[in-house]
Amino acid sequence: MGAWQRYRLRLARQRWVIRAIRKRRELTPVQDRTRRIRRRDILVFSTFRNENIRLPWFLDYYRAMGVNHFLMVDNGSDDGGREYLAGQPDVSLWTTGASYRRARFGADWLNWLQRRHGHDHWCLTVDPDELFIYPFCDTRPLRALTDWLDASSIRSFSAMLLDMYPKGPVETAIYTRGADPLEVANWFDAGNYTISRNPRFGNLWIQGGPRMRAFFADEPARAPALNKIPLVKWHRSYAYASSTHMLLPRGLNAVFDDWGGEKTSGLLLHVKFLSTMADKATEELARGQHYAASREYRAYAEGIAGGTDLWCKWSEKYINWRQLEVLGLMSKGNWA
Amino acid sequence: MSLGVVMLVHTAFDRAEQVIRHLVAAGCPVVVHVDRKVAGRHFDALRAALVDLETVRFSPRNRCEWGGWGLVAATQAAAGMLLRDFPDVRHVYLMSGACLPLRPVAELQAYLDAHPDTDFIESATTADVPWTVGGLSGERFTLRFPFSWRRHRRLFDGYVRLQRRLRFRRRIPEGLVPHMGSQWWCLTRRTLSAILSDPRRAEYDHYFRRVWIPDESYFQSLARLWSPRIESRSLTLSKFDFQGKPHVFYDDHLQLLRRSDCFVARKIWPQAAKLYRVFLNPENAERLRAEPNPGRIDRIFAAAVELRTKGRPGLWMQSRFPHDGWENGVTAAPWSVFEGFADLFPDFESWLARMTGLRVHGHLFAPDRVEFEGRQPTFTGALTDRASIRDHHPEMFLRNLIWNTRGERQCFQFGPADNQAISWPMAKDGNAQVAVISGAWAIPLFLSNRDFADIRTTAARLQRIETDHLWALRSQWARARVQVWTLAEFVENPMEHLQAALAGVAPRNLPRVAEAPRMVDLAGFGQFLQNLKNQGMHPTLTGDFPAGGAVQTPAPPRRKPYLVRGRE
User: Fold this and answer.
1) Which domains occur in chain B, in start order?
2) N or C: which end of chain B has fewer CB within 10 A?
């Protein structure tokens, strides 16, 4: 990569950082408990809209993993989720009515909060419907992983999005608040992912899974990206480029080995396909705030209204991380 | 009181305190060295916490930089203090604050009492044992290393390069043979005091001060000069990964550590509460123990290094995306391709499945759909039969298919009408076994009822495609095992060639071909090819068919009678 290209990427990063600083004005603090953040704390960053039904499990899941503080941005919820979070002792909450799309799908808001509060912390950026898993997550807390990453001088950690779905039509998978969504949506596609390399940012571009199969079969190139780098030892000069798919500086995207070996990686179990999905798709479609003119939600709305069953004969039922490791969806690397 | 401990601490002071208390309770005096980089308040807190223990001393604090001399100087001072203040000590054990005794200290003492003159120190010559990670082995002792590897990496590397270019070599002190090994040792008072009071110590110290990572070589080399009996192994279980960084033990290693029967393990994650609780429990002395046997742990960590450096062949995923040529196997397992067979034998798929018991697909790369076995809409790993999705990344589709079906050989049909994107990947994959009847694409054209001009253009296109494909298969980059017959050649003696093709699929337990597949009726095929030639399109890949239809002439008499040929 030439000096010119490097210079352009640096400009892009600086532009995003400035953009994030500018967008901070859109955020109104609801409950700022960031003074309780201690030096080595692990932080979760998240934006949400009308996810009240998922929030209790989300918090419990990450608390059990060893996350110390949650920094959340509410984008105009009206289902009581904001009030619920404001009452939680380890949550700092901001709210905004501004456009999600014009904040680059929330990345600007979170880039600001990360710059302000995440510097020198391990920061996990996840949506309320994403459950992070990593090797040995059933026996070792997240701190064990971040300590190991620190000792190995690794700054960022890859976790591909793995879409989970129920057996049978999605609208029959009734989820109750506070329950484990994996009890309802516990199937996944084990081996139909395509990978190519993004030469500009140096990251991998992964597509596939049930969404490609069911909703994007005619235009697979437009299927949603599944590559994610959610766990980063943050520095105030870093910036997520688009959602958590990639970030700058470019070196942070080098989460894969290109000499044949495997680096350590995890997964984000994406528990989106529950009965709540149909309403969500209709609502989000009306708002038009999502990627590529909400193409994804349109496809879902059409598919799910038609009673789409994502399950097929070769779907795999989720057991634990070891199963996913054996299937080659994630890797222990040299962490033993 | 035969065993004394020198402990080097730089972090996790509460855990160090726990281990020190455990050692002292078992009657071992401990001299603690705390890195000078540690803030004074931590040091004071540790000292205050241990003030009630009479046999704990703190040695003067040195700055300890990884790979630098400070660690050795700290060890020298602490060991000297231990030998001076505790005259009963016969063996000195060097530990770090992240070490954890796995067996009761009394067992370690008994073990050392049984070997009163033995020095347990891993010590190998650099010339004979190529075990260092990252290049510098012999050069550790012949170059100078004044710059910190951690803080001034560029200066460090640049200075090494400069010395190499200038052919600089340091003189090794006379009589000294450089040895290396684990920095965690257990030496006898006799050997250790001889090293510390060596009349030439100033010379040795001066030399090792500029050696790279002297804590792995100072005592290891000098012990060779003084020790009457060296047992070249460390009593501390310590494993290193491919970058020379120690592996860390967690709570889930409990059973593994228990069964290792090692005396001390390093390094323990400070928050592995269960490990500390279990192993520091004085009632944990139930079993009869054997010699240390870290074999199982060795295997687990060796597998981790293998996974990190070589990976799983044929797997492409979020954290493994090899460069061209570094795949360590493009696909995960052997697979087979049959080209032209299905054109010549209409029931070839089911016949092959019956004969070999393998998974036989149709044309996986057909233009309209993926022809999975039994034409099912999805296949393992939830691959779909949609051509659009497959063509989004055909090579990845193939890799996925082979990865998803590890342990079960896949066979599929291929031809010039299919998506050719996998032509080169197929040729370059050593796992591929390709059997080709070239020119067989002419048969469906021959049997079709299409306009002849149309047939002629199609034939020309298919021939061009197949020529390119065969060129790939025969190129110098091809690693696939390839068998090619022209159609004419094959038809002359089909049973023999089928047998040869099957031998490639199932080399072992190859069944005798007991039943022949039905072949299409080729009456008039020679004339058909002649017509193509007459139109200026020479089907060179089919081989020579006499225009008069010699194909139908009866086979030589020794041919087996059950071979049904050319009849409906």
Assistant:
1) 3-126+178-287 (3.90.550), 335-552 (3.40.50)
2) C
